[in-house]
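Database export, one record per block. Field names are fixed; values are copied verbatim from the stored entry.
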Amino acid sequence: MRAFEGDGTVDKYKTRLPLQGWSVSLELIMRFIHRYQASVFKKEGSAWSFLFREVSRITVDAFERKAPVVWTTAYVFPMEMIWALGLIPVDFEILAGFLSAAYQTGPMLRASDRFGLPQDTCTVHRIAVGAALSDQLPRPDLIVTTTHYCDGKAKTNEIMAQRYGVEYLLVDMPLEDTEEARAYLKGQLLLVFERLSELAKIPCREELLSEAVASFNDMTRCMRRANDLRKSTPCPFLPNNGGFILNFVGTLLYGSHLAPTLYELLDSQWRKELEERKFPQEKFRILWLMASPTFQATIFEWLEDRGARVVMEELSHCYWGEMDPSRPLDSMVDRMFSNTFMGKAERRARTAVELAKSYRVDCAIHFGHLPCRQANGALKLLRDALEEEGIKLIQLEGDLADPTGWDEVRVRNHLSAHLEMLQGEISGRRAWARGTHRGFENP
């Protein structure tokens, strides 16, 4: 997905790959990223270079078919199942992000248009379907996903299964958390695990999942420590909304031995940089809601120049509790039901308020990916819940993967007006607080 300056960005390899106006294969892109980030990691040892070295390596392994390939939805499906069995995970949404970062969306969108996919379908899915039709993706042996929290992913996978002629397993996620619903979900997960075990040619035994669950717990503890550092003032950050990207792409590693290492590196990196005072003081602390552009959008650099810093994203916090390695499937059920996008939208709104308070934000920015009905449908509830607590919600509208509709000037003007008003409100509150401290009477 979109990277940032100094860590293997598109800018770094524009001179070496024929990007804009040309066609370059996803496999070539991933091979280049792997070589480049392996070199960067050897020199810097950063969490960012580690993540992209490993994700690109996993994708290259899928292209080379070093093991059976399972397409899934990394941010909702329990990835421990795939890693425990030695299978190779692929999430076409993450790969579509890489294509977007490499300016390769045009040919893919045209291919999906010719196929007849409606243009109001999620652009990420349109890019992925176009990539599949153009033989750009690693071929799956099995596709498995769930019905939450992206409606389009389930349907797009139907198209993909037909395209590749492979079996497609869809886990039907209940909308309400009841004992019956939990039993229903666990039964489905068991059937999926049996099919994955068959694909891996390994006897199906639930205890095989214990090590992957323990690894997930190790990752969770490291991730929480890194997230707690973001409560600091100043807040540590990765440029260009890199915190969101790292955490979203990082879901592909959940349940592997790589995931704890990723967050250990991030925690260590941020602690060192905080000690060295590498982070300037922020003027505005921002909670980022929903997704982020995968193409090179300079709006994040513009925000940082004005002291506006994203200190947390709603898709980066640990909403789950610790899993029990002795009862892995039940623990997976617990985690899936604890997803803050599950159930009524009020749950997501409550979580946004909790994060806003915990990270002491001055405002929230909701990136309204235009085709995403699930995210945008909750906008009023989010706005009402946050503004009831005195926290402004700014809505940005755009497409997270197609840069052709992104108007940087319009977005800057929109944000500039909101930040100017926010600065006035913050100055007013501080003046009021000083007056109260001195014993003045304030209206």
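Remark 1: The chain has one domain: 10-428.
Remark 2: The chain is about 55% helix and 10% strand.
End of record.
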